[in-house]
Structure formats: structure tokens, C-alpha cells
Design goal:
46% helix; mainly alpha; single chain
Length: 275
């Protein structure tokens, strides 16, 4: 696929505006006072996007502790509110985080299902990324000096790491399908996202942080970024076309070829799992 201008479109109103994004940053900062290793929102947005693309809808009882806790699924009655999970200070804070998360999740799902013709279209999917190198380069000289020697991530790198964190933690849901063409489609898309986790070593030509900011990102990096966005579209389309993975458990004698399939699809066994 051919990449295009990746600048965010201004015509569409984002689900999370500046106020909500500031609120999320402050909320995560507060969580880090109790658990210092929690990720930034850019990592969370990559993780969220991967969940939108995952073959099986992953409930919050699974993904929330994987992202912000010990990885063990939360226990509770089906349909009941989730129990309070450290490091949230209250159920109200946890519920607010989940409400903001759901706004963004619905937006990403809608954008990916719209199948934009170009990445600068009003309805195109736009990862929530920040050009940290551009932001730091735009600081006054004395503030830049304070950060000298620190490792600064490349444009889109943290987002891609968040995406792959979800892929790695639900390997069964991201296992290659039996269809060879679909498996190649999956591998190619994931390779495009893996490429975004690499460092940008090209010559800085563009600042994604500010239109008139000092160059911080290479043209090659924008190409890689664009390919990763198209890959997300491909992954969403791939898993939607295949549907959830069905593991048929057959106890005793196997069904006849004309019997209803035990997976519950309503089809005959010979035209479903017995095909």
C-alpha cells in the first residue's frame, strides 16, 4: 500500500479532545505515584488499538490488569462492575479511566471500519502519538541541556511497543490462521508494526510536534509510520473476516457429517468444523 500525508485531519472532532487527554495524562501520573512503572498514554493507545484488532473481544477483566496490574484476570460476577484494582485510588477513578478508554476504543473501531481511502482523510485512523524528539528540540536551550544523555523514543515507537505488548500477551488470539494467504497477510501486517519499534536513524527533516519546529523525524520514518497504520487496517479486516476462533470440544463419539456442528454455528458438521 502507498503511504500518504500522515498529519491528523482537523475536520473530525476526536473522541478525546485536549481536555480529556490532559485528564488521562494526569490520571496516569497519579497512578504512577503508587506504581512507578506504568506506561504513558501513547503506549496505552497502541495497546488499545491492538485489542480492537484482536480476533476475540478481550474483556476489561483481562486487559486492565495486563496493562496496569500483575496480569492476572480480575475475578467477579459476570456483568458486575469490576473490583477495584491497584493502583487506582478509588472505584470512581478506575471507572473514569474505563469510560475514557471506551470513548477512544469506539472511535478507533469506527475509524478502522470506515476504510479511509487515504491517511489524511477526515475519517482516517490516527494513532495518538507524540514526537518526543521534536518536543524536546523545541524546548529552551537550558531545558534541553537537562535531558542530555537520556534516550528519547522515535516518532511512533512507544505506540508500536504498546500494540505488540497486546499481541504478545494473547498469543492464541493472534495465532496464524490455517489459510496460507491469510497467514501471510497477518505476518506482513505485523512486520510493518514491528518496523515501527525500531529507532529512527534517518536524517531529521520534519518536526511532527510543531509545524515550524526543528527537524526531528526522517522522511523514511513517516513512510514506516504510514505503512504501520495501513497494517492496522489490514489486521482489523483480517480478523473480522475470519471471526472468533472456535475450539470445538468433542466428547465421546464424533458427530455425523450431517449432524449439527458442536461448535454451535447452526451449520452441519461437514460444512463447519468437519470440513
Amino acid at each position: 500500500m502507498t503511504t500518504t500525508d500522515t498529519a491528523p485531519a482537523s475536520a473530525a472532532e476526536p473522541a478525546l479532545g485536549p481536555d480529556e487527554l490532559d485528564e488521562l495524562d494526569q490520571l496516569l501520573d497519579d497512578l504512577r505515584t503508587r506504581e512507578e512503572d506504568l506506561p504513558q498514554w501513547e503506549f496505552c493507545d497502541g495497546f488499545l488499538t491492538a485489542l480492537v484488532c484482536t480476533r476475540r473481544p478481550v474483556p476489561a477483566a483481562e486487559w486492565l490488569p495486563m496493562l496496569l496490574g500483575d496480569g492476572l484476570p480480575l475475578e467477579g460476577a459476570y456483568g458486575a462492575p469490576l473490583p477495584l484494582m491497584p493502583p487506582f485510588k478509588s472505584l470512581a477513578q478506575q471507572q473514569r479511566f474505563l469510560a475514557l478508554w471506551e470513548l477512544r476504543r469506539a472511535e478507533v473501531e469506527q475509524q478502522l471500519d470506515a476504510q479511509a481511502e487515504s491517511l489524511d482523510a477526515d475519517n482516517a485512523f490516527q494513532p495518538e502519538v507524540i514526537d518526543m524528539r521534536g518536543a524536546i528540540a523545541s524546548l529552551p536551550e537550558e531545558e534541553r541541556a537537562e535531558m542530555e544523555g537520556q534516550e528519547i523514543p522515535s516518532f511512533g515507537q512507544v505506540w508500536a511497543l504498546g500494540f505488540l505488548f497486546a499481541v504478545e500477551n494473547w498469543p492464541e488470539d493472534w495465532a496464524a490462521p490455517r489459510d496460507k494467504e491469510a497467514a501471510q497477510w497477518l505476518d506482513g501486517a505485523l512486520e510493518s508494526i514491528v518496523a515501527l519499534t525500531e529507532d529512527d536513524t534517518g536524517r531529521p527533516e520534519i518536526c511532527m510536534y510543531a509545524e515550524d519546529g526543528p527537524p526531528s523525524t526522517s522522511q523514511e520514518r513517516l513512510e514506516v509510520f504510514g505503512e504501520a497504520i495501513w497494517a492496522v487496517y489490514d489486521l482489523r479486516q483480517l480478523w473480522r473476516s475470519l471471526g472468533p476462533r472456535v475450539e470445538a470440544v468433542v466428547k465421546g463419539a464424533q458427530p455425523g457429517r450431517n449432524d449439527p456442528c458442536p461448535c454451535g454455528s447452526g451449520k452441519k458438521y461437514k460444512k463447519c468444523c468437519g470440513a
